């Protein structure tokens, strides 16, 4: 399927033109700062017709993963971009659509299709956000204008991401997520942890100091996750290389343990959390399909700080594979500490409505195991898909090494030989690395780390990649000839 029809459609889809000349690192930093400024401006502008948004751990996690702020212009965030990427990866991976990313024409068609699909999803998601009460409306009469605002905000984010990829220092998705998480960590520490610690000390008693220290446990977990993530990023396998045309010159090919970085867990988390939003339309279904709707996702109304109500996922298959828990059990601080929190996970149950009738009580510890297992499995699946789509498979890497004149000492300069050697390492590393980030993100989220464990893991990975890219940019500016060789 060559999808030539995109040639006729793509000319109606606006595209940001790339720079006419290579930009210096300073210019890229200026562009990056400007785009981030626009992002935070939209982040702090509430959509007209939206009432005070509810606050919960579910919404906080959705906001961080989608680089959004519920109730703002960018409520939908990067969700359409990520979902469009997931759908096209699945279609391509299943063989229904063949795309040669080395062919510039096919690559342009693929990118145009992804952009068009993201725009369609932006309007669909905006409708679901407004229609299902995920974004509380000041009045039902504002529904139409809110949908338009949220969809347009998502499309603006789409083009900001494209502008960042052409003029900035990294992808917009990465930088928006990292900025949102950093903001959440600072705001969470200043507005939640510090007041809680002050209240614990003010209460007095022999345990005042220890109680104040325990309040900062989410921050301690965040630091632990930060350190473990850095260690994982520094772990790598290095293969020796030699340059055929210049004897005596060699190097090493690093194959990092996190070969797929954090992208698989972004896609997996986005998919899981998107289901909790998309399935809200099942709420209120009656008749023959009522039990089936509750089996998929069961929602119940809860009160908000503004005196209204919102729907909260409380049961069903979607609940069991999500990191959501009913309030106030969604986070250790919400229930009064880690001991009550873990007691709840061990002793409580959720409802699973069976399609043929009846209710099955599922222990919350099974919910935890299912969430961790599904997230880890999805991370591995998306890790393998991403490797193929991004041209980072052993075959692609072997061709790149051969085309640059490098070879592995002791082996003939034949891409097939290099591919066989890389196949000993890369497939295993992809599985282990994807499994690691999935497990670490899930376990960190369950501990209630400030900024969410998922957000911290993503931010560490994004900052690490940004650091490497900045180093590479400075190296290429110092040695222009090296830039030409690498291209």
Can you describe what's shown?
The chain has 487 residues and is mainly alpha-helical. The protein folds into two domains: 1-8 and 25-184, SecY subunit domain (Preprotein translocase SecY subunit); 217-487, no CATH class. Helices cover 61% and strands 8% of the residues. It is built from 20 helices and seven strands. It has helices spanning 6-10, 25-43, 57-65, 79-93, 104-131, 143-167, 172-202, 208-215, 217-234, 263-278, 290-296, 317-320, 332-335, 338-347, 364-389, 394-403, 415-422, 426-446, 453-478, 480-486, and strands spanning 236-243, 250-256, 298-303, 309-315, 349-353, 359-363, 406-407. The strands form three sheets. The protein has a three-stranded antiparallel sheet. A hairpin with a 6-residue loop joins strand 1 and strand 2. Helix 7 runs antiparallel to helix 8 (208-215) and helix 18 (426-446) crosses helix 19. The chain is globular and about 70 Å long. The two termini are 30 Å apart. The model has no long low-confidence stretch (mean pLDDT 79).
């Amino acid at each position: 399927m060559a999808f030539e029809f995109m040639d006729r459609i793509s000319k109606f889809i606006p595209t940001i033109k790339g720079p006419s000349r290579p930009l210096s690192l300073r210019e890229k930093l200026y562009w990056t700062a400007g785009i981030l400024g626009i992002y935070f401006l939209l982040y702090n502008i509430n959509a007209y017709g939206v009432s005070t948004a509810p606050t919960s751990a579910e919404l906080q996690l959705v906001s961080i993963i989608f680089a959004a702020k519920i109730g703002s212009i960018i409520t939908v965030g990067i969700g359409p971009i990520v979902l469009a990427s997931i759908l096209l990866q699945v279609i391509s991976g299943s063989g229904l659509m063949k795309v040669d990313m080395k062919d510039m024409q096919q690559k342009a068609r693929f990118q145009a299709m992804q952009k068009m699909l993201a725009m369609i999803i932006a309007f669909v998601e905006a409708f679901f956000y407004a229609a299902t009460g995920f974004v509380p409306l000041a009045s039902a009469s504002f529904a139409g204008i809110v949908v338009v605002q949220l969809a347009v905000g998502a499309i603006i984010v789409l083009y900001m991401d494209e502008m960042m990829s052409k003029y900035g220092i990294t992808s917009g998705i990465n930088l928006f997520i990292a900025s949102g998480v950093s903001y959440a960590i600072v705001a969470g520490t200043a507005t939640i942890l510090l007041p809680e610690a002050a209240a614990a000390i003010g209460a007095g008693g022999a345990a005042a100091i220890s109680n104040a220290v325990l309040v900062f446990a989410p921050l301690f977990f965040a630091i632990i996750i930060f350190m473990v993530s850095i260690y994982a990023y520094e772990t790598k396998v290095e293969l020796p290389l030699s340059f055929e045309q210049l004897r005596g010159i060699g190097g090493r090919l690093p194959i990092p343990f996190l070969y797929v970085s954090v992208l698989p867990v972004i896609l997996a988390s986005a998919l899981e959390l998107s289901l909790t939003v998309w399935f809200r339309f099942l709420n209120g279904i009656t008749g023959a399909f009522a039990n089936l709707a509750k089996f998929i996702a069961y929602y119940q109304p809860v009160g908000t700080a503004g005196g209204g109500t919102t729907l909260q996922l409380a049961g069903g298959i979607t609940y069991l594979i999500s990191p959501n828990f009913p309030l106030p059990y969604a986070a250790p601080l919400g229930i009064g500490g880690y001991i009550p929190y873990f007691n709840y996970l061990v002793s409580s149950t959720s409802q699973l409505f069976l399609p043929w009738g009846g209710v099955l009580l599922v222990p919350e510890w099974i919910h935890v195991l299912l969430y961790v297992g599904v997230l880890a499995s999805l991370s591995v699946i998306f890790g393998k898909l991403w490797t193929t789509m991004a041209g980072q498979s052993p075959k692609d890497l072997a061709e790149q090494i051969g085309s640059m004149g490098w070879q592995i000492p002791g082996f003939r300069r034949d891409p097939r030989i290099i591919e066989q050697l890389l196949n000993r390492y890369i497939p295993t590393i992809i599985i282990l690395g994807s499994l690691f980030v999935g497990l670490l993100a899930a376990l960190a989220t369950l501990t209630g780390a400030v900024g969410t464990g998922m957000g911290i893991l993503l931010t560490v990975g994004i900052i690490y990649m940004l650091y490497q890219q900045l180093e590479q940019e400075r190296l290429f500016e110092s040695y222009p000839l090296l830039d030409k060789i690498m291209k």
